[in-house]
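Sequence, please.
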């Protein structure tokens, strides 16, 4: 029984030290070891039958105390959690590597000589990167100029602390060039304006917009703020008698997102997103939902073959919430939404990208695609175009809303020609449905201009 109690107490003390941050001080565990050793001397003094027993306990306590002191002075390496390489404004001025420590930074961490930074480009070429270092509590910021990279991109980074308490290799998570997102999902601001045209039809304009206003927390790998997405004319098909511009799918939320560098088989890390408070709306119809959702997305190690670059991002998440409105009529027809109350969905998908480089810059031509499936666990509206009988005895093609539990896929594919870091000409294809009414988009292909930016 006494061994079980000792084991539980040990786990409790270690967990408390980790959660409270006490173990970030390098002296914590050596001090704890000396204090534990002194208990043997205390208990021997209180209950020892002879001085011989007391002498043995003192000797054992001294051994543990000496080992703790030697470990503190000689062999306790610097504890490092991770680092993030942050390319600000394309690195036209200053690039930075933020190293997160698990304890207070030693004084020599402010010396450039204590850090070894290098990058390997493709084809293989090792670039030694000179840095300067500054300390801010548990963070060390290493800065360098982009000119040191010689224009190379898609680098494999190596960072190591080689000071008095090293050498220690630093886990590295390299963010993409912050203001040059490759795909829609990487962008904080994405606006695509395009149109559909056909014989005997008015033009149909499509706006696909995404905005994230997120600010970094003290730990630079976590951001918090607001996010929103809008897609217009989701279920409208040609021909149309008038030009329409209806935001049929609007999603807004308070968002928290972060990333973690982690070697997981073929992946180099993952991105997690939590949106505890959000909503789904349409402009034209009185229907809205309260939502709360979260997701995790793995990042495949980017691969390059010649001038081609490709990667993959599988994801899995959930969406939950409650319906706030139950209109009795939608799309000129009566509907029964009395069962539309709680919302529970499993969301899974994958995104891929294939880029072609020109002169080692960002991909000039980019083929990207995403496939997302929402699987409702409760019945939700599903809207599709159908031929409906009229009172005159004929038929009319109208949108029909039914309560169903069917899976709702949505795929978005694009062939993009990047005119600059931010502007591109894009041919886009969409198929599937989006909340709240899940209006079915039947292979909508459009041509337009896209703007993308990441902060």
């Amino acid at each position: 029984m006494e061994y079980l109690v000792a084991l539980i107490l040990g786990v409790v003390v270690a967990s408390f030290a980790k959660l409270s941050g006490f173990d970030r001080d390098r002296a914590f565990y050596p001090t704890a070891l000396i204090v534990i050793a002194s208990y043997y001397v205390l208990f021997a003094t209180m209950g020892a039958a002879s001085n011989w027993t007391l002498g043995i306990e003192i000797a054992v306590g001294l051994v543990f105390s000496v080992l703790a002191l030697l470990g503190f002075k000689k062999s306790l390496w610097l504890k490092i959690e991770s680092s993030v390489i942050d390319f600000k404004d394309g690195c036209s001025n200053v690039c930075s590597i933020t190293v997160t420590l698990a304890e207070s930074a030693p004084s020599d961490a402010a010396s450039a000589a204590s850090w070894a930074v290098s990058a390997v480009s493709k084809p293989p070429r090792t670039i030694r990167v000179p840095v300067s270092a500054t300390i801010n509590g548990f963070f060390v910021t290493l800065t360098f100029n982009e000119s040191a990279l010689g224009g190379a991109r898609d680098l494999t980074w190596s960072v190591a602390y080689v000071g008095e308490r090293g050498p220690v290799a630093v886990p590295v998570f390299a963010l993409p060039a912050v203001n040059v997102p490759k795909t829609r999902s990487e962008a904080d601001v994405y606006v695509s304006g395009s149109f559909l045209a056909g014989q005997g039809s008015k033009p149909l304009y499509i706006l696909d917009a995404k905005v994230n206003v997120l600010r970094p927390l003290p730990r630079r790998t976590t951001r918090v703020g607001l996010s929103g997405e809008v897609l217009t004319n989701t279920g409208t098909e040609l021909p149309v008698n008038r030009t329409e511009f209806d935001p049929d799918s609007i999603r807004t939320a308070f968002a928290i997102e972060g990333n973690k560098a982690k070697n997981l088989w073929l992946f180099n890390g993952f991105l997690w997103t939590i949106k505890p408070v959000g909503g789904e709306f349409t402009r034209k119809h009185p229907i809205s939902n309260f939502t709360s959702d979260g997701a995790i997305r793995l990042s495949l190690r980017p691969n390059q073959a010649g001038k081609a670059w490709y990667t993959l991002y599988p994801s899995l998440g959930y969406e939950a919430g409650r319906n706030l409105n139950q209109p009795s009529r939608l799309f000129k027809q009566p509907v029964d939404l009395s069962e539309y109350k709680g919302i529970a969905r499993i969301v899974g998908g994958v995104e891929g990208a294939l880029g072609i480089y020109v002169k080692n810059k960002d991909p000039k031509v980019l083929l990207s695609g995403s496939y997302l499936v929402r699987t409702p666990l409760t019945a939700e509206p599903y809207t599709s175009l159908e031929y409906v009988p009229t009172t005159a005895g004929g038929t009319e093609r109208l949108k029909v809303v039914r309560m169903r539990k069917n899976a709702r896929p949505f795929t978005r594919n694009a062939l993009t020609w990047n005119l600059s870091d931010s502007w591109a000409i894009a041919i886009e294809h969409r198929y599937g449905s989006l909340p709240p009414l899940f209006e079915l988009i039947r292979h909508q292909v459009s041509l337009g201009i896209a703007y993308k930016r990441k902060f």
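The chain has three domains: 2-75, 80-174, 189-453.
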